Amino acid sequence: MKRKTITKAITREGVTLHSGNSSSITFRPSYFRRGILFYNTQRDPYKLHPIPLSPFIVSNTSFSTAIGNDYRIYTIEHILAALQAMEISDIIIEVEGDEVPVFDGSSYCFIEMLREAQIEELDEEITPYIIKYPIWVYSEDKYIIGMPSSQFSITYSIDFSSKSDLLPYQVAYFNITSDIFIREISRARTFGFLEDYENMKQNNLARGGSLDNALIYTRESILNDEIRYSNEALRHKILDLVGDLYLLGKPVVGHIIAHKAGHSLDVQFAKKFFWHEKANESSENIKRILKDFDELSSKLKLSSFEKIKNN
To answer: Taking the complete model, does pTM exceed 0.85, yes or no?
Structure first.
């Protein structure tokens, strides 16, 4: 796979999801094989402090993913999902403010921007991150597991039955190709629950949220007039996971199985995946890892473990 960038700059403005402020985002070409770089141009107008893409500089995972410290930028996951879908490895991203505009709450607006900026192949090849043996992170009943596979695929399950009758246990599987992501996942919007809304606003969250950029669920209904997919909330969780995994800056090859995960667990998994890729485990260590994984599968009661293991 070749490295890719865009051919021209493009800028869009919009409202941010959590602060509710106006913000703009600019994509610029990058031909220096430096990967994906963010700039907070409000705090760093001379662009002296680039924020490189890495799970190790994630500074916040509360309701979104933020990177950087003094020049922090919030809510980058939808951009990253679009970059992964369009196979962009090298780009400069300038955000005028501390948070990326939410637009319609999905990643499709960013895909449209990248298409308009036109994609260009570079001469150099990019090597994907490959899952070589099982890796996992978990917290209570939430988990993310990575299994070896010849392609990038995700099995994801959610259960928000405690908050809405419309979101019981659901599960979906997708082979994450560019075409499938754009068609089946990219338009899925972020979502939340009416019962949480006032509390979030008091904590300076979701101040820019509206029915134009988020699905809002009550116990018995959804406030939006239309949904884009029958399981749109579940697909948005897949979108977020794809974006958070692209903190690695490279394509992923492997089968990811996630249950009730979120940004915090996503980032933990990306960090573990980074070291997994760098490691050169002995056969004895791999046997121990597989034994530990069998014990984990029993502990978490993975109902489809044998099927998952063989995919």
So the answer is: yes
